[in-house]
Structure formats: C-alpha cells, structure tokens
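User: Hello! I'm new to structural biology and keep hearing that structure can be predicted from sequence alone. Could you demonstrate with S-layer domain-containing protein? Please show me the input and the output so I can see what each looks like.

Assistant: Of course. The first part below is the input, the amino acid sequence of S-layer domain-containing protein. The second part is the output, the predicted structure written as tokens.
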Amino acid sequence: MLKKSRFFISVVLIFLLLFSTTAYAKPQPKYSFDDIQQFTWAVKAIEKMYAKGFIKGVGDKKFNPSKPVTHLEALVMILRAMGYEEQANKITELPKEYKGPKLSWGKGFITLAYQKGILTYDELKRFNPNEKAKRYEIAKYLVRALGLENQAQQNMNKVLNYKDWDKIPKDAIGYMYVAVEKNLIKGDGEKLKPNDPVRRVEMAVLLERLDEKVQNNLNGRDVVATVYAIDNNTITVKVNGGLKTFNILKNVPVYNENEYVGIDYLKPGYQIRLILDFKNNIIFVEVLNNKSEEVIPIELKDVKNPPEKVSSAVEAIKNKPAVKLVEENGIYYVIATRGMMRTGGYIVNIQKAQIIKTSKDTILEVEVKYIDPSPDAIVTQAITYPYDIKSFTYDGKITQISVKTDKNINVSVDIDLASDVK
C-alpha cells in the first residue's frame, strides 16, 4: 500500500512539474545565426540590422561576431543604414585620389563615402580597405554620416570623464565627443577604448543607434504601427490612420528591448516596429511600447426606435456624410449618414467599433461601410437620406472619434455628450 502511495505521489509531482514548465516556460529564440546566442546584449541589434539588410552573415548560418570589421566593411554598413546602397552599387570606379590595394568589390562605397564627406581627402589617400577599423575611426564615420562635422570641429578641445580620454588621437577628440553626446558610442562607464578594433557584434549595435537617428524606413518596409488584431499567420496594425494586414513568417524574431519574447507576447494596443521583406511579409518585430494603448471591444446593437435626441441628431446631419456620437440616459448612440442621394438603393452600415484608451484620450474607432446600388438595380426614384444607428454601453467618457470607411468620402465627426458623463 505504501509503495502504491509513493508511486501515486510521484506521478502527481511529475505532472505538476510538467504543467509548471509548460505554463511558465519562455519561448525559445530561433536565431538567424548559430553563433550569436551568447551575446545577449547585442542579439536584438544583430537580428534587426540583418532584417533591414545592413549586415550580412558569413555563410553556413554564421555571423562571426567577434571578428573585427575592416574600414571597407564599416563604410558599406554605414552607407546601407543611410539608404545609399543602391546609389553606391551603380558606381564602378574609385576616386583618382585612392592609392590603396586593388579591390574586387566595394568600389562604389568608397567613392560615395568620399563624395558624401564620410572620408576626407587625406584619409582617402592613405585608405586601407582591409585594415581593422578602430573605435575612434568609426566615430568619425558615424558623425560625418549624420552631418555633424562642424560640431566635431568645434569640440576638439573638450574632455569627458573617461580614464582613457587622453588616448584619443587629437584630430579625433571632437568626433568622439559628439559620438558620445549623441549616444552613438558608449563606454563601459570608465573607458571608451578608442583604439580598440570594432568587432562585428559591436558594429551591429552601432548601426542600430545610427539607424535610430536616420530612421531609414527601407522605402516603406520599416513600419511603426499599433497592433489592432493578431492571429497565428497575420498581424493587422493601425498605421497612418488606416488598417493594414501583413503575413507573419515562421519563427519571426520578436523583441521587447533586448529580450526575445515571441509572437504570442503581442497584444492589441502595443506599439511595434515591423520590418518587412520585399513581399511585405513580417521578418522582424520590435515592441516599442506595450503600455501606450488599451483596446476595449464593444458590442454594437441595432437601434429601431431611437430616442428623440438621437432622431433630432439624424435630422441635423442627414444632408452630409457624417458620424456623430450621442449619449442619452447612459447609452451611447453612433449615427452614420451618407448625405442626400437622388435615388434609393444606397446603404450605410456601421460595421464595428472599439474604444482605444491612451494616456490622454479615449477614442471611439468606428468602421462604416457605404454600399451603392448596382448599375442594373431597380431603385426608388426619389431623394433619400441613408443612415444607420447603432448603440453600445461604456462606463466612461469618449473624447474623440476616428472613422474608417471603404470609400474615399470626406466624413465629418461630432460628439454630443451629457455633461454628467464621466
């Protein structure tokens, strides 16, 4: 009997352990490269810059994070982040001032860097594309890429509280000063290590900081939006006042700051950055704010016998396309009109709505569909004023209305609330 009890207890403990592990286990990252897992402070930057096409792997799912970048590699990455890759690829000749080794690739990037002022005349004459790039040299490239050359020159005598500040070459002090002040380069709290070669893993982080300054949206493939709805295969987001739906590629990396969180972490209302491939599939997601909005679904009900206040509101706006919110006796009424139509057959349908709460406003989002009669439809030959009314309950005050329609119609909005609505 004792043996059976022990066996039963063991089975229960195993099930509890399995359940707890399942319930609380974090998603396992699916990295783009097999050799970056240990660099937890830089993994997100590597994945993000790889998704944007600013950095590449070295083959066989390897990134080689500890390898120093060369001067040419650094210029290529920086020019990509600035959005100049296509322009550089069209250039096939090196500047006549270039005296370095012969190159099989990258000529256009060197030429463009010289034209853009990222490389100076004196630097170009002694430029060695295969030499390891030091931190102070990368600082020069970053500062010039951002058009901050004058600021660097004006701060050549500045001193910051780092133990190795005196190790910076005199002609680079202003660049390091600006790079630190602009949060492009950060030390370890005590040292900047200006003469250390920059490793590929560090370059990914520097590129991410540069990208934040440049805000290269990859011709529309870097999208900052708010999650509207999400399922296993797609994400619908609010962007520029409208809704867009994108496909999610399998194992897409999703990060909240430097933590891998997985696709299940996303919720409606989260502000996110999506990076898309050339087919508009999502290949990277970054959570920018998981507290910016609260999405409150509401249930719309048909209104057959509206109160007098609502009927009067319909009469007041029926001559134009409009959406009006009216509150009466604790119930909200949404009215959508189309304006005067010369025949029957036109339909207005308030399809759905939701409430978005931000730190400042409570916004009612309404989707309205306008239906026209088909060309061969038999319709009433009389002037009509199509409209729709829906009602819902909500214990709070709505401060704004946002309207989405399926047609290019200029819709006016208005709110008529009782003074005691909180």
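User: So the tokens describe the shape?

Assistant: Right, they're a compact way of writing down the 3D structure. Reading them back into a model, for example: The longest strand covers residues 347-357.
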